[in-house]
Every structure is written in C-alpha cells, then in structure tokens.
Amino acid sequence: xxxxxxxxxxxxxxxxxxxxxxxxxxxxxxxxxxxxxxxxxxxxxxxxxxxxxxxxxxxxxxxxxxxxxxxxxxxxxxxxxxxxxxxxxxxxxxxxxxxxxxxxxxxxxxxxxxxxxxxxxxxxxxxxxxxxxxxxxxxxxxxxxxxxxxxxxxxxxxxxxxxxxxxxxxxxxxxxxxxxxxxxxxxxxxxxxxxxxxxxxxxxxxxxxxxxxxxxxxxxxxxxxxxxxxxxxxxxxxxxxxxxxxxxxxxxxxxxxxxxxxxxxxxxxxxxxxxxxxxxxxxxxxxxxxxxxxxxxxxxxxxxxxxxxxxxxxxxxxxxxxxxxxxxxxxxxxxxxxxxxxxxxxxxxxxxxxxxxxxxxxxxxxxxxxxxxxxxxxxxxxxxxxxxxxxxxxxxxxxxxxxxxxxx
Length: 408
Hints:
This protein has twelve helices and twelve strands. By secondary structure, it is of the alpha/beta class. It folds into three domains: 4-129, no CATH class; 181-357, P-loop containing nucleotide triphosphate hydrolases (Rossmann fold, 3-Layer(aba) Sandwich); 358-408. It has a five-stranded antiparallel beta sheet. Strands 7-8-9-6-12 form a five-stranded parallel beta sheet, sandwiched between helices. The chain has a two-stranded antiparallel sheet with strand order 10-11. Helix 4 packs antiparallel against helix 5 and helix 10 (360-374) packs across helix 11. The N and C termini lie far apart (139 Å). Keywords: Membrane, Transmembrane, Transmembrane helix.
C-alpha cells in the first residue's frame, strides 16, 4: 500500500472532493486539476490534467490521472476564456481508462506532473496578454509604417524643392546671359573687311541696348551693295547670340502671306533678349515693315519683352553716282533719309548702318582669308587671277567658290 504525503504531489486547483464515512475507514477521494497553455501563430494549445488521489489520514494510498487536450484557433477562445474559472468536472468522464501500456510509479508521476506554468486563471491572463501583445505589435508596426511614410514624404518634398531651386537658379543664370560684346567685336573686326565704321556703329548700338533694361525693341538697318558684309555680319551676331531659340530669321516678304506680327512676337521669350533678322528688303518695303514693327514694339513694351531687330536692305533700287575713276557707287544717303522718315511717322527709331563699297585691298584680304580657311596654297599671281574672276561691284561675294579653281 502506498503511503505518501500530499506534499509529494504537485497539486493545482481542487475541483471536487468525495467525502466518505470515516467510520468505515474508507479513503477520501480528492480531485485536482492543473492546466498549461502554449500558443504559436493563430492557434492556442491547452492541456488539462486531472489528478485523482485517494487520501486516508492525510496519506495518499493510490492515485489516478487523466489528461484532456485542446487545440483551437485563437479567435474562438472568447467563450472559453470567460468560463474557464467555472469548474467543469462533468466534462471529465467518471470512469476514464488509464493509459494503456503504461504503469506509472510515484517517481515517474512526480516527473510527469511537475508544476505546470499556468492555472485556469493564468490561462485567461495568458490569452489576454497574447492578444494585447498582438495588438501592441500591430499598433507599433502601424506607427513605424506611418513614420516611414512621413519620412518618405519629407524626402520627396525636399527633393522637389531642391530640384526646383536648382532649375530656377539655372534658368536665372541662362536668362542673365547676354551677347558677349568682346567676342563679337573681335569676330567682326577679323572677318568683316573694310567696314570699321559700320562695325563701330553696330557695337555702339548693341552696347547701349544691353546697358539698359527697358522693354521694347531696338532697330538696326543695314544698307550696302552686294558682297560688302551685311549678311555675314548678321550671321556672326546670330551665332554668338546667347540663346539659339530666341533667334528668328525671315526673308521679306514673309515666307507665308498668313504670317503676321502676332506670329513673330508669339515666339518671343521673356528670358533674356530676342533677335529678329528680316532680310532682302528694298526701300519700297519701308512702309509695310514700319507698320509691322510698330505692332511688335507695342507688344514688347506691354509684355516687358526685349528684342533686337536687324533689317537688311539689298540696295537693288538705289540711285548711283559716277565716281571720277568711272566706278559706279550707290547713293545710300537718300535711302537712309527716306527710311528714317517713314519709321518716325510710326514713332519708331531706327539706327542706320551703311556698309561702304569694298576697295581692292579689302577684296584681297577676303581672298587670303578664304585661302587660309580652305588650306589651299596660292601664289600672288593666282590671287590676282581670282580677282579677275570676280564680277565688278560684287565685293567678296563668290570669293570662296573661285579660290579652289586655281589650286594646284
């Protein structure tokens, strides 16, 4: 007969006691229950162990044990958690068969029945703590995600601000760029031969334009014979202009009969100055071109736009005077007075730039420049032959095409 003290058993919560008549000296049967839980993911596992001890005179004479296991999703434990403290011994069969094939001795029982981590009350607490931890974890994750999103938004906004600042700063620098007067003067003096007075007048007008910042247009009228450098000068100004997209070049009458002044100033930019070149004009075009530029000037002043307008007159309809050596020279003074008067009638000021006829030494310089540029070796006699090939009164026009004809 087993004779062990109750203290040898790791008991939990007493759930029932069968009192028997002590006169019959029958043992008292006491039932105890212990529970332990474990959870992982969305499942919770619970194990209830019922220990039935036969006690006589506070000594354990015999014992039995029963085990009931649960494994359910965490979402369905609400009702179980609320009722867990209510004794439910009736759920345990009165007659449970002992585990087959296993005879437990007292030492084995003590090992298997070591104190469990949770009682019934702790199970409810563990479930509550698990749910609380899960909620806190979700809250923490949501807070961290919110912080990351907020930081990302700050980064995007900062990047946009920085990029915008850099773009506007770059645009500002581009808009502040002007025509390099030093470079332009050097280019004209080294390539436009025999026109020192014209180059001086052009540079004077452009310097005055860039030294003021008033909206509106400045008008230059180039007049001269064929091959004296009018178009060549406009090509240098156009190439050296700070912004290529601000340059417009037209042949008069305008390429399309439907093209109007609004089509011209619609392409004007508020970023820096604009350049408009109108080529192949004659004196009889002065009235139409003056009215055309009057509209452009009004628009420029109203919208705060600045523009340089260069008018290139061909001199085809000019009067000529006979020089003492028999050379016929066009008289541009009459043309200048007529054009200036027409522009004054529409309140426009025009700077008239006259390109004088080229002398022999000027043409020789043109030929030498073409020889150097094409890398051709010509003797002095060859250069004289090139001079002979050029039509009288054409200046430097056609020099580049005649030089290769005499190359060896």
